């Protein structure tokens, strides 16, 4: 199996790469980090230093991987950033940067991968969203907005692609223990929510390694939405069954945050 993973040099992407290599897959790690080649070399993977906001670079990276390996079976459009803050703190820089990476980065990956998969007659596109893309997640409006959009993109493309032999899934994890939590609002103005993020998370963090196994299980089962861990699924079901209650619970979370500012 040939796989390409954006954001593959750390966090969820690195956990996926590690698990896939252990299962015998050939993996291409694409990441903006200067450490990408070192990380990939340690795993025996191919690598490319890639900024997913650069559409032409994404197109070239995916085409090069396809040319080298003759196919790409699974693409994980996983690169992303975390952005948080109460709405009045957020600048247009927060909004635009988050949209560029978390949404346009996925769009660029889909735009590059889908024609290749149509040409080869098969493939699976896996887009990393978040539980925040399924629930009313406050205090991180730009992030939540992009993740809802990634879910919508994935479900729409899944319906369109299925008759043509292409599978599409969205990954929607709850809070995962990754370096993303240590770098909220990267290169952007700081906010109240961006300080001591780990200490403010109301649930235990899920390990990236466990999530990687959940993702691959969901991919094997061709699940439309891969929601993990079980506490995330409970939150999702609750938001679907009682949306008003879910919004009130989220509102109480905001009140506690504001009281502590």
UniProtKB/TrEMBL annotation:
InterPro entries tied to this protein: KR_dom (IPR057326), NAD(P)-bd_dom_sf (IPR036291), Sc_DH/Rdtase_CS (IPR020904), SDR_fam (IPR002347)
Coiled coil: none
Any one Gene Ontology cellular component term annotated for this protein: membrane
Domain Ketoreductase stretches: 1-174
GO molecular function ontology, one term from the record: oxidoreductase activity
Annotated keywords: Oxidoreductase
Family label: Belongs to the short-chain dehydrogenases/reductases (SDR) family.
Protein's UniProt name: NAD(P)-dependent dehydrogenase (Short-subunit alcohol dehydrogenase family)
Organism: Longispora fulva
């Amino acid at each position: 199996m040939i796989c390409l993973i954006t954001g593959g040099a750390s966090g969820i992407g690195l956990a996926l790469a590690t698990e896939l290599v252990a299962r015998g897959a050939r993996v291409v790690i694409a990441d903006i980090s200067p450490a990408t080649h070192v990380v990939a070399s340690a795993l025996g993977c191919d690598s490319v230093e890639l900024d997913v906001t650069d559409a032409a670079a994404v197109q070239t990276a995916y085409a090069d991987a396809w040319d080298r390996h003759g196919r790409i079976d699974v693409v994980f459009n996983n690169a992303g950033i975390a952005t948080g803050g109460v709405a009045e703190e957020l600048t247009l820089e927060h909004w635009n940067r988050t949209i560029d990476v978390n949404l346009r980065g996925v769009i660029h990956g889909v735009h590059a991968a889908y024609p290749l998969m149509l040409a080869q007659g098969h493939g699976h596109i896996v887009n990393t969203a978040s539980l925040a893309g399924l629930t009313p997640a406050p205090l991180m409006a730009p992030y939540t907005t992009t993740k809802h959009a990634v879910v919508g993109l994935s479900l729409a493309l899944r319906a369109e692609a299925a008759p043509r032999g292409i599978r599409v899934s969205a990954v929607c994890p709850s809070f995962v223990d990754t370096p993303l939590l240590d770098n909220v609002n990267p290169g952007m103005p700081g906010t109240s929510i961006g300080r001591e993020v780990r200490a403010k998370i109301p649930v235990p963090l899920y390990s990236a390694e466990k999530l990687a196994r959940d993702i691959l299980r969901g991919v094997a089962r061709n699940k439309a939405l891969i929601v993990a861990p079980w506490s995330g699924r409970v939150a999702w079901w609750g938001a679907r069954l009682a949306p008003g209650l879910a919004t009130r619970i989220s509102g109480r979370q905001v009140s506690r945050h504001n009281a502590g500012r």
